[in-house]
Design goal:
The protein is α/β, with parallel strands linked by helices and 569 residues long. Strands 8-9-11-12-13-14-15-16 form an eight-stranded mixed barrel. α20 links the parallel β13 and β14. α2 runs antiparallel to α3, α2 packs parallel to α4 and α13 packs across α14. It is elongated.
């Protein structure tokens, strides 16, 4: 009779264990009780034969695979209670040894001890491998666990038709915490993030740390992709709450990429790659953004891959060109320098905008050979103009990226370009953005110190939009500040922008720096800048970027001392 009852209990427990709406803990406990109940039924059917008890050892060893104490301890407790109670009520169905039937509680404890002892090897292996299964800092699942659960989740999704979503998270500005407060504070912040992620996810989800400041969340059994977006928004809201770390109130956020299996039941590797791609797309959009991998992102990714392959061949095929935009001395109206701007004439796409291929070059490392070519070609063009009779004091300005700025070979590239072309060092000026100076200031300082030894000038581009400080201006020994066009655009409409430009000019002149205003497009802007004492300017009011042959007449000594727009001022 009790075997029949136990059989019904096993069936009920199997239903609970397979219930997708239940939490992982509930399902694992149901599976544990069901499996050891199967062992109990087998012992009953064999009238307590010793060999039947070995099934308990097998089942408990299987339960250890859950890597969770709860189902394991439930199984051990079940063995003890079952052997004791049934040993009292029906001893001969549990024990074949007459001595055991006389003292069932003692022998129940003995059997429980045997099962526990037989599991020691598995327990030791479990604890030894736990560092591979759990992140030791945050307690979240490891990358190995996430990958395994993702494979299983996708298999279940293919059967059920319900999508799986994978969220990749990268903390915004985490490096700033490490650099300013130290790695101990950074570790504590990661622990806070791990705890908040654990609070956000459902019991059926898996939160994991991938390493560094990257995390992942696996969401199973979703109704639709919109649920994954809601989860991402919930995570961002939780991470956006301030937290106290070593007496400092810190605010953090995360760029989140989402990939779902619903479209084409992707493989685990594809899902991770797409979520990672979406995350980096989110970071490109700014901080605290969410990006979902979809058909549009996939098409964009394929375009990028194709564009990257073409860019690798562009230099060898001679598809890159330099156009030049003049910088005008505002007091005289004469062109004192030209800025070299790279253009790509793609054989099929036509003219590819710099904003499309320059970030790609920086991301792929192609910026180094590209930047080397720009420096060499600009110096060669300066010499060609001089041989054609251009103003001998004309300076060439070349933009340098953050990747180039930390390359110790940059000094040798510049020295060789100067020597090969015959350009004087003081006629070459490198333009560096504020953000590039801030990325790795120590490495940049070393590279720029070597470049300054050559006699090359330095200009800070887009000044006012990055993270420059007076200390950086002093350390890097720059010559020119270029005011970002965003301030010039609203110069005559916004008193604040005029005040900012006035303050920048005053500060620069106090430091013996020259000031160039970018983006001058109207005579009114020009008049205001001259009144404020700006040294030089650049913009469409004077000239758009042009190829070398069109720029030559403007840089000749007999060229008009003032561009036509200057006459209106």
């Amino acid at each position: 009779m009790h075997c029949l009852l136990e059989g019904q209990a096993i069936a009920a427990l199997a239903v609970v264990a397979g219930w997708r709406g239940g939490s992982r803990m509930v399902r694992s406990i149901a599976a544990s009780v069901g499996l050891v109940t199967c062992s109990a039924v087998l012992v009953h059917l064999w009238d307590g034969t010793t060999e039947g008890h070995f099934h308990f050892f097998v089942v408990v060893s299987l339960l250890i695979l859950y890597q969770d104490w709860v189902p394991f301890l439930v199984a051990i407790g079940y063995v003890i209670v079952h052997h004791a109670l049934l040993g009292v009520l029906a001893p001969h169905e549990v024990y074949s040894n007459p001595a055991a039937a006389d003292d069932p509680w003692l022998w129940a404890a003995v059997h429980g001890s045997f099962v526990l002892a037989a599991s020691v090897a598995n327990l030791v292996s479990w604890r030894a491998n736990e560092q591979l299964l759990r992140d030791p800092l945050t307690g979240l699942a490891s990358r190995i666990v996430l990958s395994d659960r993702l494979e299983l989740a996708l298999a279940r999704a293919r059967r059920s038709g319900r999508p799986v979503a994978l969220l990749f998270l990268d903390l915004d500005r985490f490096k700033l915490v490490n650099d300013s407060l130290g790695h101990t504070a950074g570790d504590r912040l990661l622990q806070v993030v791990g705890a908040r992620l654990g609070d956000c996810v459902r019991s059926s989800d898996t939160a994991a740390r991938f390493g560094g400041d990257e995390f992942a969340v696996l969401c199973e059994d979703l109704d639709d992709a919109a649920e994954a977006m809601l989860m991402a928004e919930r995570i961002q809201a939780a991470l956006g709450e301030p937290c106290q770390v070593d007496g400092h109130e810190l605010m953090t956020g995360a760029s989140i990429g989402i990939a779902t299996s619903e479209a084409d039941q992707r493989t685990a590797e594809e899902l991770m790659r797409y979520a990672d791609t979406a995350m980096y797309r989110a970071k490109q959009q700014g901080t605290n953004r969410i990006e979902r991998f979809d058909a549009e992102v996939r098409a964009s990714l394929l375009r990028e891959l194709e564009l990257e392959a073409d860019l690798r061949h562009a230099l060898a095929r001679g598809e890159l060109r330099l156009h030049y935009q003049p910088e005008v001395r505002l007091a005289t109206g004469r062109i004192e320098s030209v800025e070299a701007l790279v253009r790509w004439e793609h054989p099929r796409r036509g003219l590819v905008p710099p904003l499309e291929f320059i970030p790609l070059a920086e991301l792929t490392g192609l910026i180094t050979p590209l930047g080397t070519w720009v420096i060499q070609e600009a110096c060669r063009q300066a010499m060609r103009w001089r041989t054609e009779g251009a103003n001998p004091s004309l300076a060439i300005r070349v933009n340098v990226s953050a990747g180039q700025l930390t390359d110790p070979r940059l000094r040798d590239v510049i020295a060789q370009a100067l020597a090969t072309s015959g350009t004087r060092p003081e006629q070459l000026c490198l333009e560096i953005t504020e953000s590039a100076l801030a990325e790795d200031s120590e490495a940049a300082a070393r590279v720029l110190a070597g470049i300054r030894e050559l006699g090359v000038q330095l200009a800070v581009d887009d000044f006012g939009t990055g993270y420059s400080s007076l200390d950086r201006l002093r350390r890097f020994d720059v010559d020119v500040l270029k005011i970002d066009r965003a301030f010039v655009r609203a110069l005559n409409e916004s008193p604040d922008d005029a005040a900012i430009i006035d303050a920048i000019i005053a500060m620069a002149h106090a430091l013996n720096l020259s000031v160039t205003a970018e983006g001058i497009e109207t005579p009114e802007q020009l008049a205001t800048l001259r009144r404020l004492g700006c040294d030089s300017g650049q913009g469409f009011l004077f000239s758009r970027p042009a190829p070398p042959d069109e720029m030559l007449p403007l840089v000749m000594p007999e060229a008009e001392p003032a561009v036509a727009a200057m006459d209106a001022v």
